[in-house]
Specification:
This protein is α/β, with parallel strands linked by helices and 158 residues long. The protein has three helices and ten strands, in the order βαβαβββαβββββ. The protein is 18% helix and 34% strand.
């Protein structure tokens, strides 16, 4: 299963839609800021399932995190602002471990993160729109045979 992950798109959808069309994933995930961008992506790619959570810039009553079974694994999906990920990943790790997740997907920092923390993948795809390091990125996860791999990838189109 190939999963394309976006976060912090902030109203700019062209690069996100182009990347999704290029990679043709099995699942799309948007980690917030702006949820309406996830809806635009879903409209452009209606044949691909979409999972999204709101960020701190989204005015919605949608649940701020999801525990999502996927490919035989559990993903903890959140924007990260309520876990204070700009200060530390400790609260995020605690919540993900309590949910028995294999990966914690988050955004909010606009900086990519792809690290293993004692069997828990901490993954932030960065931002295609306002990256802190100047690199427009998204995330690519693959789940096969119960194994998870993750890459932060530069956008092919900007």
């Amino acid at each position: 299963m190939r999963i394309l992950v976006f976060s912090d798109t902030h109203g700019r959808t062209a690069a996100m839609i182009a990347e999704a069309k290029l990679r043709n994933p099995d699942l799309l995930i948007h980690l917030g800021d702006y949820v309406r961008d996830a809806r635009a992506l879903s409209s452009a790619m209606p044949h691909i399932p979409m999972v999204c959570v709101p960020g701190n810039c989204d005015l919605t009553r949608d649940k701020p995190h999801l525990v999502y079974p996927c490919g035989g694994l559990t993903l903890y999906i959140t924007h990260g602002h309520l876990h204070h990920v700009k200060q530390s990943l400790a609260l995020l790790q605690s919540a993900a471990r309590a949910a028995h997740a294999r990966a914690a997907l988050f955004g909010h920092t606009h900086s990519p993160c792809n690290e293993d923390s004692g069997g828990l993948l901490l993954f932030n795809p960065g931002s295609p729109t306002f990256p802190h390091d100047g690199r427009s990125t998204c995330g690519l996860l693959e789940i096969e045979g119960g194994q998870l791999s993750a890459l932060v990838v530069p956008l092919s189109y900007r």
